[in-house]
Each structure stands twice: as structure tokens, then as C-alpha cells.
Specification:
CATH superfamily: Cyclic phosphodiesterase
Number of domains: 1
Radius of gyration: 16 Å
Distance between the termini: 38 Å
Helix content: 25-40%
Oligomer: single chain
Largest sheet: 5 strands, antiparallel
Mean pLDDT: 95
CATH topology: Cyclic Phosphodiesterase, Chain: A
Length: 174
């Protein structure tokens, strides 16, 4: 088994994204709620080190301002682009801490997004993308921490722990 690390959204942002995912993701494949994956396959034998690192990083990190500017066509689905330079920087820090055990997918540069539809026929994906494009408006949200999950053989995820960002902004550090 392995672990997955995702961004924790504020409640309003999560509700918006999860409503879209529940509406458009094939129900027979929709095992998890809306999320933005930061790491896809962290090894179980590094759990203690990973949790120690996340505890330390969360204490030094404030709430993140997120921007969702547009839709992304995935070929067999649709996602919403997520822009947050501080999150990219944070993920880079974590990658450096964990570089000795990251797999190929998690070692690559990240393109932040939230998948709201995937693994459908290309025509269905095109239709969904076109429909959503007519009404989509960019929006903002907040990243309040990270969520640590255990990936199960069934394809489902089991919640392990939440690491909330607790650093308060100051005049010197916003």
C-alpha cells in the first residue's frame, strides 16, 4: 500500500468542486471526493518521516490563496486549473525532503488541478467541457492544509490525518 497527499480546501471551495465532481464523474469510478493531489504514491515504510515532515511544514505555512482560472480538457475528462505559486513552492520543499523515495510521477513538476471528470469516452468529455465552458467563471478559494490518505487495493482512500496550516501572516511574511 501507499499514501496520497492532497490539498485541504476551505469548505465553500470544497463544496463547489465536489458538487461538480459528483455531477460529472462516472459514479462507478468516483471513489473519492474532489481533491488536488500533491503526491500520488508515498511509501508506507516512510510514514513516520512523512508525518514528521508534514507537521513541521504545516507549522511554518499560512493559509494559501488559490485561484481557479479556467477549465482544462483532459481528452477523456475535464479538470479545473489551480494556480497557487506558494503551493508549488511548498510541494517543491516536500519533494526535496522526500526525494530519496519519490516515484517517477511524484518526482515530476506538478500541474495543479482538480479533476471533475475522467475516464469517459472522448465525445462525452468534449460535450461536458463545452457545456461547462459556457457557464464557468474563474473563482478563488483557500488552501487550509494538507490531507494524508492511505491508498487501498479497492481504489478507495482511507483518511489518515489532516495537517492544518497554522502560521499567521505578519507584515514581513504574508
Amino acid at each position: 500500500m501507499s499514501f496520497v497527499l492532497t490539498l485541504k480546501f476551505d469548505d465553500e471551495t470544497f463544496a463547489t468542486l465536489d458538487d461538480l465532481r459528483r455531477e460529472h464523474f462516472p459514479p462507478e469510478r468516483n471513489f473519492v471526493s474532489a481533491h488536488s493531489t500533491l503526491f500520488h504514491a508515498l511509501p508506507d515504510d516512510e510514514q513516520d518521516f512523512i508525518e514528521e515532515t508534514l507537521t513541521e511544514i504545516a507549522l511554518k505555512t499560512g493559509v494559501l490563496e488559490l485561484h481557479f482560472p479556467n477549465l482544462l480538457f483532459l481528452g477523456k475528462g475535464t479538470a479545473i486549473e489551480l494556480i497557487c505559486p506558494r503551493l508549488v513552492q511548498l510541494r517543491g520543499q516536500l519533494s526535496n525532503y522526500w526525494r530519496d523515495f519519490l516515484g517517477e510521477q511524484d518526482s515530476r513538476k506538478i500541474k495543479l488541478h482538480v479533476t471533475i471528470q475522467n475516464k469517459v469516452e472522448p465525445e462525452t468529455a468534449k460535450q461536458t467541457f463545452a457545456e461547462l465552458s459556457e457557464t464557468f467563471k474563474p473563482f478563488d478559494g483557500r488552501g487550509e492544509g494538507v490531507l494524508f490518505w492511505r491508498y487501498l487495493q479497492t481504489g478507495r482512500w482511507e483518511f489518515v490525518q489532516e495537517f492544518l496550516f497554522v502560521r499567521k501572516p505578519t507584515n514581513d511574511n504574508v
